[in-house]
C-alpha cells in the first residue's frame, strides 16, 4: 500500500508538471481531470493504510516526487516533449493498473476486505484512463 501511495504521488507530480506545459493543447483538461482522480486515489489509499494501522512513507513519496520532477524537467527540454509524455503516461497507466490488481489479489490474504471497494474504484478509473488514452 505504501508503494501504491508513492506511485500515486508520482502520478500527481507528473500531471501537475505536464499540465503546466499544455496550455496550447486540448489534453490539458484531460490531465486536470485525471489529476483530480489521482488525488481521490491518494485519499483512498490513505484510508486503506489507516485500516491496516499504517501510514504512507514520506521517504518513498519524496523519492518518487523528486524523480518525477527530474524526468519532467528533462522532457521539457526536448523538442518532442508532448509525444514523450504521451508514451510515458500510457506506460504509467498500465503500471498503475497492475499495482491495483496486485493489491486486490492480496486483500483476502491480508485480511483487508474492507479495502477492496476502495481499490476497485481506483482500478476502474485507471482502466478507463488507459482505455480512452486519457492522458
User: What is the mean pLDDT?
Assistant: 85
Main beta sheet: none
- SSE sequence, one letter per element: HHHHH
Strand pairing plus helix content: what structural class?
mainly alpha
Counted by DSSP, the helix tally is 5
Helix content: over 70%
The end-to-end distance, rounded to whole angstroms, is 24 Å
Give a description of the structure:
- The chain has 135 residues and is mainly alpha-helical.
- It has helices at residues 2-19, 27-52, 58-76, 81-110, 116-131.
- The model has no long low-confidence stretch (mean pLDDT 85).
Question: Key features?
Answer:
135 residues; mainly alpha; 81% helix
Short recap of the structure:
The chain has helices at residues 2-19, 27-52, 58-76, 81-110, 116-131. It has 135 residues and is mostly helical.
What is the strand and helix layout of this fold?
Elements: H1 2-19, H2 27-52, H3 58-76, H4 81-110, H5 116-131
Amino acid at each position: 500500500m505504501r508503494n501504491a501511495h508513492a506511485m500515486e504521488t508520482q502520478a500527481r507530480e507528473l500531471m501537475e508538471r505536464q499540465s503546466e506545459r499544455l496550455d496550447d493543447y486540448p489534453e490539458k483538461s484531460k490531465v486536470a481531470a485525471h489529476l483530480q482522480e489521482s488525488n481521490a486515489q491518494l485519499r483512498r489509499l490513505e484510508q486503506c493504510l489507516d485500516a491496516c494501522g499504517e501510514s504512507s512513507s514520506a521517504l518513498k513519496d519524496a523519492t518518487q516526487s523528486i524523480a518525477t520532477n527530474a524526468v519532467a524537467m528533462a522532457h521539457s527540454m526536448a523538442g518532442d516533449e508532448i509525444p514523450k509524455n504521451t508514451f510515458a503516461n500510457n506506460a504509467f497507466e498500465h503500471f498503475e493498473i497492475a499495482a491495483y490488481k496486485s493489491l486486490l489479489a492480496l486483500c483476502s490474504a491480508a485480511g483487508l476486505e474492507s479495502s477492496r471497494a476502495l481499490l476497485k474504484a481506483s482500478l476502474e478509473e485507471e482502466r478507463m484512463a488507459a482505455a480512452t488514452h486519457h492522458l
